[in-house]
Write a structure and sequence with these properties.
This protein has 137 residues and is an alpha/beta fold. The chain folds into 2 domains: 4-53; 59-136, Chitinase A, domain 3, CATH 3.10.50.30. 28% of the residues lie in helices and 29% in strands. The strands form 2 sheets. Strands 3, 4, 5, 6, 7 and 8 form a 6-stranded mixed sheet that branches. The radius of gyration is 18 Å and the shape is elongated. GO terms for molecular function: translation elongation factor activity.
């Protein structure tokens, strides 16, 4: 069984959701949503039992991995973007948290600083970035 890596925020959200569902389980015992709630509780318990929580402190990393905060620079316009690579459950582009399954994460995983990565855009063009910083747990 593979261990999942979750941020402290992600672990806390799952634990809070589980507590809330547990409190409300009685309310739903005669509801058509009962099965959904029980299944969701089982899913959360399974996720938590197979997960590790990343520490808050980050330090310079040698290569990109799940849990890394990576800064990339677009090679033409020199715009910089910083993303945290997280489990798909926690992905939230508005908070710059991208899934390990996203194109950027897939291209960056295992790479080091000053490595150039390319991503195929949906329109067929190629986006090229350079990894300029890596922070790992």
């Amino acid at each position: 069984m593979n261990m999942l890596k979750l941020t402290q925020e992600g672990t806390r959200k799952l634990e809070n959701e589980l507590k809330e569902l547990s409190k409300r389980k009685r309310e739903f015992r005669h509801s058509p949503d009962k099965d959904f709630i029980i299944n969701r509780m089982n899913e959360i318990e399974s996720l938590l039992s197979r997960s590790l929580t990343w520490p808050v402190v980050k330090e310079s990393g040698y290569f990109v991995q799940a849990g890394s905060t990576v800064t990339i620079e677009e090679t033409v316009f020199h715009e910089r973007y910083t993303y945290m690579i997280v489990h798909p459950f926690e992905a939230d582009p508005r908070e710059n948290k991208i899934s390990v399954h996203s194109p950027i994460a897939k291209a960056a995983l295992g790479k080091t600083i000053n490595t150039t990565i390319s991503i195929q855009a949906p329109n067929g063009s190629e986006l090229i970035y350079t990894i300029i910083d890596i922070q790992n747990c």
